[in-house]
Write a structure and sequence with these properties.
Structural class: alpha/beta
Strand order of the largest sheet: 2-1-3-4-5
Strand content: 5-15%
Shape: rod-shaped
């Protein structure tokens, strides 16, 4: 069963988190809001996310350091990060964000519709990835069933070609067992 797409919202200011939750309301995504880089890293140990919205400038562990930790972990390195930061339009900060693995870098104030559109894209990609993984699992199960049936047919054929006294009964039993499971 496929889970619901989640977005991790990371900002040291509660009012910014409330605003982000409001912007994303109505999208097919469950938001999880945390107030520090450390809390984000802990959350990433227990949950999978379609996208991370990460404040660049936070006390203690800033967004860049947090992103570095996220991208170093095998389990989370593929999660897209969108940096959000105050109206500091320093190009060096944006470059720093991209260098630690961000897929985008938005300065405040940003257009909420643009952010919704970007998050929607990553949610759609996450959902499609989950669907592909589920389909892959079904294919693997069917391939295993096919191999088991093929082996049973081969074994039954060998039995029928042999001159063993109860070969046909054993062959039928083998085929019935393979068919049912």
């Amino acid at each position: 069963m496929m889970g619901v797409a989640k977005a991790l919202l990371v900002d040291d200011r509660r009012d910014n988190l409330v605003a982000l939750e409001a912007i994303l309301q109505g999208l097919p995504v469950h938001t999880v809001a945390v107030e520090s880089g450390e809390a984000a890293l802990k959350q990433l140990l227990v949950d999978d996310f379609a996208v991370i919205l990460l404040d660049a400038q936070m006390p203690d562990m800033d967004g860049f350091e947090t992103a570095g930790h996220i991208k170093r972990r095998e389990r989370t390195r593929h999660v897209p990060i969108i940096f959000l930061t105050a109206a500091d339009r320093d190009a060096q900060l944006a470059l720093r964000g991209y260098s630690v693995g961000a897929v985008d870098y938005l300065t405040k104030p940003f257009d909420p519709w643009v952010l919704r559109a970007k998050v929607s894209v990553f949610v759609d990609l996450w959902i499609k990835t989950q669907q592909l993984q589920a389909q892959s699992e079904v294919v693997r199960e069917r391939e295993a069933q096919w191999r088991a049936l093929t082996e049973a047919v081969d074994e039954a054929t060998a039995l029928l070609r042999s001159s063993a006294p109860d070969a046909s009964d054993r062959a039928v039993t083998l085929l019935e067992q393979a068919r049912w499971g």
